[in-house]
């Protein structure tokens, strides 16, 4: 099992992945935010779905999902249809323009990764994919798995017993301000 120092370094490296995500965000078309791209990707991989299901997959409030859906619908990338089973709900699905945008987003992302990882071998890229897939599986569905708090600190050994001093032998103790706190 890895040691504490290795897990601390892993946490630092995972935090640094934010720089990779920011670079990937910079190549998005001007009218397609990272949130919009995430919605398109989820609809592309999972197919048509209710707004509530999309909200769960995004792990965001329904109001955020609604804003993303409105943005995408305004651009003609998705359509919102009444759910036949529940007219209060909407089913979201990609339009042909949405599919085309998803293809463009994939092309841009793959292009950037190919550029940045040009000195990596195919085996190294495959290894990274495998390790990231395994890491993600180890965390499971982060929306439904309760976070386990860290274990409590080890109990402290009891303080050594102070021998009782007979009343006649007690001495005056003076504390400095630093000792008083």
Q: What key attributes describe this structure?
A:
single chain; 181 residues; mainly alpha; Arc Repressor Mutant, subunit A; three-stranded antiparallel β-sheet; 3 strands
What would you report as the Rg, rounded to the nearest angstrom? 28 Å
Which percent bin holds the helix content?
55-70%
Q: What is the number of strand segments? A: 3
Low-pLDDT parts are 170-177
**Overall geometric form:** globular
CATH superfamily of the domain at 32-109: Winged helix-like DNA-binding domain superfamily/Winged helix DNA-binding domain
| CATH architecture label name of the domain at 32-109 | Orthogonal Bundle
Terminal CA distance reads 41 Å
Main β-sheet, spatial strand arrangement: 1-3-2
| Annotation field: number of helices | 7
CATH class category label of the domain at 32-109: Mainly Alpha
Percentage of residues in strands = 5-15%
Mean pLDDT: 83
| Strand/helix succession | HHEHHEEHHH
Description of the structure:
By secondary structure, the chain is mostly helical. Helices cover 55% and strands 9% of the residues.
